[in-house]
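Q: You know discrete backbone vocabularies at least as well as I do. I have my own habits and do not want them to colour yours. No explanation is needed for now; the record alone will do.
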Amino acid sequence: MPRDVSSDTKTPRSPQYSLGYSNATHRWMSLRSPAIHGAFFLPHLSPGMRLLDCGCGPGSITLGLASAVAPGEVVGIDIEPIQIERASALAQEQGVTNVQFEVAPINPLPFPDASFDAVFVHAVMYHLPNPLDALRECVRVLKPGGVIGVRDTDYSVWFLEPATPVLDAFRDLSLRVAAFNGASPTYARQQRSLLVQAGCTTTSSAASCISRGSADEIAASVQAHITRLQSPAFYPVAIEQGWATETSLAQMADELRAWGVRADAFEAIMWRESVGWTSIEH
């Protein structure tokens, strides 16, 4: 199990997106689909809803949500302009006309109170130092009786098998760097409680597991892990904070590559997915 990084005493900096926005990361994020990553939320959507997708990334999930609520309008936001460009291009390519994308933060949201029927937030809250504040913003823009769906990894359950000391060190360092960069790697264990604190009067919650056990899946995972390890938000932080050296980071990259060609390589990460509703008198 990854260790608890909440007790690290060195001062974290402002939130950084440690995955970066490389072509490799873009390809990996583009594989996300509403059928898998939004399946828990789709039953709560209906035609005509106005929906906000916070942290839409390249738009692969957003377009599926747009289909679910058509002819209702979908607004996708992301803090990174390149993601908005990619999402807009994808919508144009697929001929989806009931969606628009814009550069905007999740906290504060640039929308008035009670302006959406539904809000979807996928793999965003993990990257924030205080997910509750962002959840309160999401609930603020919901209409009375509105619904919010939140899905995030809970990195307290993350396996790289067969385990080795170097792989364990990489996993623990990943969480440590993420927390330093302003993320909350294990917040999802409190996801349902946070929705209540944010203002939802009814909630439901579940857990699922994303596993990677085929050669192609493991190869993609290795590429994503090494890209993150070598990114400006990871590599220099680990060295400057005294948590790793150039030699140990090189060993981690080599160990990931060696793990990636093993016939028995396997990875699993737990995801929490929760749905919340506001009061009809909200």
Q: What stands out?
A: The mean pLDDT is 91. The domain at 23-277 is CATH 3.40.50.150 (Rossmann fold). The radius of gyration is 19 Å.
